[in-house]
Every structure is written in structure tokens, then in C-alpha cells.
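Q: What would this chain look like folded?
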Amino acid sequence: MTAPPIIVLVEPQDLVNIAATVRIAKNFGIEWVRLVKPQVFDPYRIEGIAHNTGDVVERIRMFDTLEAALADCVHAVAMTARERSAKRSLLRPRVAAEVVTERTADGPVAVVFGREDKGLTNDELDRCQTLATIATNPRHRSLNLAQAVAIMGYECWNAREGIDQARKPPRRRAVRARMDDLDRTFHDWHRALWALDFFKSRNAENVMRSFREIVFRGDLDLREAKLLRAMALETVHYLTRHGVLGELPESLRLPAGMKGPRELDEDADEGEAEPGEGREGADQGPGAG
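A: My prediction, written as C-alpha cells:
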């Protein structure tokens, strides 16, 4: 993996923007932040705003001029909202990030951001080999400093790591639902919807065809198919317990797999037991643990 760029902020005016930049640097693996004559600087407050970034805060370096901040860099990309800059080609962030990644093979590369209120001066832009601009509404072109840093940090991360990063595999490999599993699910949802009088003003065949298409698009695994089926079974059980279950057609009087009033095949037993599994599965969702 190539080295990350150096973030350079020229005369930042707001401590919150410095802290946000530090947080973004941490998010996207950027190790070095350089500040040119910041109007305010308080490491304690910065780390208080951007938690768990002490290592980045400790590496912040101060400079009196942009020239000094870029002295050891082999390339610098300046961010500007001024697309009219005379006779200078402007890159979009993704292309600029590719330039940054390529040039880091030769040495340190900086991405330079200007003041919150007026950006970089022409002289400062002239000190950078590459100019980049973020496409925005022409009638409201200027971004917040930290927002611009975040966009470039993200693009540089993707250029270094690749957009399609390997992700942690699931703890358990999902078993795909078979067609007979899905057929039982379809049968029991047909039964549940009939019990709810859902087809009173709707064509049952058309509804179930649409329901099948929705499920097929979901590409369910076995656990998901069983949970979905358990919801249908519990719907009918609820209506039965409360004495409001109406007369069902002969073909829908029994759940899928039931051979008699109290006889379920093995797969149907699994479906009946699924509500407990569903609750357990819900606890394993995003944010759990």
C-alpha cells in the first residue's frame, strides 16, 4: 500500500475545523497534518472534540508559510473552488487522488486546503503543481473546510486501498433456501393473507405472483426463508387464539407439510420453531453486541 498524503491547512480560523480534520485523518489513515499559521490551536481541546486521535494530534506540525510546509514534498495538490483560475487545469477529487497516490512513490505529497472564508491566494495556488475542485452548485460553490477534507480523504483512501476492499466474512456461511423451502413459505403466506381477508378486494393469484417476485429478488437464505414462513404461521395462530379465524379454503386449511390435524413433517416443525430463532437472529443484527 502506498503512503498516505499530508494534509496542509493554511491559516485555519476555527478550532472545530482543525479537530474535524484530525478526525478525518484518523478515519482515512492519514498520519500527518500540517498547519500554516492557525488562528487558534489547542491540542487538548482538539482531542476533546476528536476523540481517540491523540496520535494524530501529537504529529501536527506548525509552519509560518506554505512554502516551508511544502519544502520536503515532491508534489502538492491545492483544493480550490475557483474554477476560473487562469490557464490551470482542474481535476476532480477522484482523479486528483489518483495523482496523489502515484506521486507518493517518489516522496511526500501534500493536499493543501485554504482559509474558511477566502481559500488560497493566487500565490499559494501557484506553489502547487496540481489544482483540484469539488463539483458543487455554481450558485453556492464553497464547501465547509472539513467537508472538503473529508471528500479528498475518502478519495485518497479509495485510490490507495481500492474501492472494493475485502470485507470480513460472515461468522457462519449461509445455507441457501431450496425451492421446496420457498414453496412452503409461499403456501403459508397465501394462507395467512387469506385469513386476514387480504384478498377481499384483490386477486389472490396476482398478489401471490408479486409476493413470489419480491421474495425471489431478496435471494433468501434458509434461515431467512424459515423466519418469513414462521411469521405467516404465527399470523394464523394469533387469529385462531383470539377466535377470529374465518373459514379457509380447503387447500389452505393446513400449513404446508401438515398431513393431519396434529401431524407436521420435519421441515414444518422447523418452521414452527422459527419464531425463537428469529428473535435470536434479531439480536445478531447491526449494532448488536
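Residues 222-241 form the longest helix (20 residues).
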